[in-house]
Amino acid sequence: MAEPNAGTAPEIRSERDWRETLTPEQYRVLREHGTERAGTSCLLAEKRPGTFTCAGCGTPLFVTGTKFESGTGWPSFFEPLEGAVETTVDRSHWMVRTEVHCAHCKGHLGHVFDDGPPPTGLRYCMNGVSLAFEPKGNEPGGV
Question: Which ranges form a coiled coil (predicted)?
Answer without folding.
Answer: none
